[in-house]
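Kindly inspect this chain:
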Amino acid sequence: MAMSHSFLFIDSRMTAGKITGLQVQQKNRNRVNIYLNEAYAFSLAALVAAPLRIGQVLSEDDIARLQAQDTFQRAYDRVLNYLSYRSRSQSEVERYLASKGVAPDVAAAVIERLSEAGLLDDSAFARAWVENRAAFSPRSPRVLRQELYQKGLDASTVAEALQDVDEEASAYQAAGARAQRYADLDRATFERRLGGFLQRRGFDYDVVRSVVARLWRDMHSDYDN
């Protein structure tokens, strides 16, 4: 797998020297250019560069340590941006870091930091996923289980997240708005279309039949069934 140059840690044993300049990059205010002995040497994340001072002497080991910290910080910051769009499972973050060419040991350190900060929690992720589906796009437990497995969650975490899901209640909620569209249809067409909708959401046949009949009765309570 090709490695992303932005995450390669190149231990060139850079010559030690005195810091003669610390300059925030114009195009990226989160990075600082480091000058040793009046010449540009390397750049660091601003957080990593914060303790450095003009006149400070850096040994080869100091430089290697700073570069390692910078590699970690860049990977960590990138994952924070990845998480800003929505919560992720640990497996998703691991795959993301691998796709960016982050070394396994750096990825493991990033995962550990995220977990310690409460930003990566598979149990919480699974619960949130199920709650979000229930609120906006109900699915059957079977489909939810498949979705969570695809996110890389283990069986016990998935089972815990699904333990309180009521399949019939979910099916009824999923079909409620759709049933209104079919209000003027005859019963056979109503059952066929609404039943197909629920089956595509993964609900079992018996649940589909029960919910469709219930919704028909709800919508035609003034008529004989």
